[in-house]
């Protein structure tokens, strides 16, 4: 439930931990307990008063009710303090430590194969979402690909935006069929690195023309452009079944190594594979994809290619099976050198819990002091006896003076 807010003199009063208000139940129980106990004490005192004068020596001022009010009031104020009352706003600096990650996600037709439940694409989406939930900082870019690759979301620290696009990603929405792993890696590099770092390389051009540059061309740079020295806080995570249609993925992996970007590959599927489902424009399966010979086309996981791509860059290969991906990928990413990105400034509510916490503590101290002021019954009884003794002595002396003869 959303916390309510109240406008007070132009400032908004809200609560940062509204759910802690459930502790008000304890305050209500305290009130009920004190009322019940006070009623019982009064009935008991009336019974004692009828039996003799001793109970009347008890201090007539009933301080129990006042102590109860102090304890209940302090408890209520403590509950309000736990709810974190906030009045006004304050600007705070939020530092962002982490790495830049480009997630290249295969969304080709073969990712609809169900050798990983519910299918390859949905299983990969779940793992990407889990990874985003676990990352403590950094920035992420999303690069879907099939026959073409494109940057769906540029580098951002707002992981919820990336997850929103993940939920909307569908195989039938991809502009071109096929699987272009090399193009996807190049597009991921463009999402991670500045244009000058890619100048003269095969990743400089668009995905439709990637892969046509030679090694000599990649080494050529415009005059005055300094070579890019690479970075340890940038990585690419490639989710795919490993089927590539002649886009030189190994050459793309070598370019990652040259630019200092670590490549982690995640194989989605099984080596046995299954037939590729035929999907219409509405995303419904209407059959199975068949080859020119009329036979069903199978999609099998190409682990060898993905192993080689990761090894070239010093990265690692991981297999996404029916049991999930595990924590290996996150642990490998955590080993990379982290960078402090530009700090962001957020307007947060200004906590004012001390305004009610201090009065609550003062009430508790006052209650403790008030409780110690009452003298014990034995002391009251002894004082009564001393007063009676002094009164008797005075009465015995006065008559003696009257009998004295002048």
Write the layout of secondary structure elements.
Elements: E1 6-8, E2 11-15, H1 24-49, H2 64-82, E3 85-98, E4 100-106, H3 120-134, E5 139-145, E6 153-156, H4 159-168, H5 181-192, H6 195-198, H7 215-219, E7 234-240, H8 249-258, E8 262-268, E9 274-275, E10 277-279, E11 285-288, E12 298-299, H9 303-313, E13 317-320, H10 328-334, E14 339-351, H11 354-373, H12 377-403
Parallel strand pairs: 4-5, 4-7, 7-8, 8-13
Antiparallel strand pairs: 1-2, 2-3, 3-14, 5-6, 9-12, 10-11
The amount of beta strand, in percent, is: 15-25%
Give the termini distance in whole angstroms: 96 Å
Q: What is the 3D shape?
A: elongated
The whole-angstrom Rg is 39 Å
Q: How many helix segments?
A: 12
How is the CATH topology of the largest domain named? Rossmann fold
CATH superfamily descriptor of the largest domain: von Willebrand factor, type A domain
Mean of all residue-level pLDDT scores: 79
SS class: alpha/beta
**Strand arrangement, largest sheet?**
6-5-4-7-8-13
Give the ordered list of helices and strands. EEHHEEHEEHHHHEHEEEEEHEHEHH
Low-confidence stretches: 208-230, 401-406
Number of strands: 14
Multimeric status of the protein: single chain
Q: What composes the largest sheet? A: 6 strands, mixed
The percent range for helix content is 40-55%
């Amino acid at each position: 439930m959303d916390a309510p807010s109240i406008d007070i003199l132009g400032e908004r009063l809200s609560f940062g931990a509204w759910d802690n208000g459930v502790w008000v139940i304890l305050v209500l129980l305290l009130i009920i307990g004190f009322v019940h106990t006070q009623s019982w004490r009064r009935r008991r005192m009336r019974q004692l008063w009828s039996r003799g004068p001793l109970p009347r020596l008890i201090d007539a001022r009933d301080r129990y009710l006042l102590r109860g009010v102090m304890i209940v009031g302090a408890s209520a104020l403590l509950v309000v303090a736990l709810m974190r009352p906030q009045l006004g706003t304050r600007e705070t600096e939020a530092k962002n430590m982490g790495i830049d990650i480009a997630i290249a996600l295969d969304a080709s037709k073969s990712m609809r194969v169900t050798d990983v439940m519910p299918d390859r694409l949905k299983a990969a989406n779940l793992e990407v979402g889990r990874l985003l939930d676990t990352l403590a900082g950094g920035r992420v870019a999303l690069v879907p690909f099939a026959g073409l690759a494109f940057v769906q979301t540029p580098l951002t620290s707002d992981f919820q935006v990336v997850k929103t696009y993940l939920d909307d990603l569908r195989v039938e929405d991809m502009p071109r069929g096929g699987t272009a792993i090399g193009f996807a890696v190049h597009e991921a590099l463009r999402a991670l690195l500045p244009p000058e770092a890619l100048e003269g390389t095969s990743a400089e051009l668009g995905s439709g023309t990637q892969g046509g540059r030679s090694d000599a061309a990649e080494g050529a740079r415009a005059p005055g452009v300094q070579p890019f020295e690479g970075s340890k806080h940038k990585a690419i995570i490639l989710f795919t079944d490993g089927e590539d249609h002649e886009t030189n993925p190994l050459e793309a992996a070598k370019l990652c190594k040259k630019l200092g970007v670590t490549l982690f590959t995640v194989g989605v599927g099984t080596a046995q594979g299954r037939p590729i489902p035929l999907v219409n424009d509405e995303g419904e399966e209407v059959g199975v994809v068949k080859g020119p010979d009329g036979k069903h086309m199978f999609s099998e996981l190409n682990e060898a290619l993905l192993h080689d791509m990761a090894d070239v860059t010093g990265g690692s290969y991981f297999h996404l099976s029916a049991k999930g991906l595990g924590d290996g990928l996150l642990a490998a990413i955590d080993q990379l050198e982290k960078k402090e990105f530009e700090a962001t400034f957020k307007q947060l509510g200004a906590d004012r819990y001390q305004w009610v916490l201090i009065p609550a503590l003062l009430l508790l101290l006052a209650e403790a002091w008030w409780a110690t002021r009452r003298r014990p019954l034995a002391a009251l009884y002894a004082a009564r006896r001393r007063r009676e003794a002094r009164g008797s002595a005075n009465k015995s002396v006065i008559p003696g003076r009257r009998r004295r003869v002048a």
